[in-house]
User: Which sequence fits this backbone?
């Protein structure tokens, strides 16, 4: 269950759009056009869909911004402390090698 947050947004948005389309299909009956509540419901549904879409886009942009910032910090650290990064990589490699050798 290592689903990426950025991958989950389009799936959730797609499912939500399907749900909204189904709801609009139910309330789009011409027989219901005479009810003012249906017009209000349609407008609220459209407004809600736009709000959710905007929120999903903003969340994806925030996640991308945070990922870029984390990459920039890691890159800066690797350039400022190359020996620490190399020794940490060596330690992790040795540990993985040791664990694989025991199998």
Assistant:
């Amino acid at each position: 269950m290592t689903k990426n947050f950025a991958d989950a947004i389009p799936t959730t948005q797609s499912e939500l759009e399907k749900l909204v389309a189904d709801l609009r299909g139910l309330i789009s009956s011409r027989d219901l056009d005479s009810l003012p509540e249906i017009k209000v419901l349609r407008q609220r549904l459209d407004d809600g869909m736009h709000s959710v879409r905007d929120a999903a886009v903003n969340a994806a942009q925030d996640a991308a911004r945070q990922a870029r910032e984390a990459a920039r910090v890691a890159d800066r650290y690797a350039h400022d402390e190359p020996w620490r990064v190399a020794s940490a990589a060596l330690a992790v490699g040795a540990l993985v090698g040791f664990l694989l050798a025991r199998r």
Summary: DSSP finds three helices and no strands in the chain.
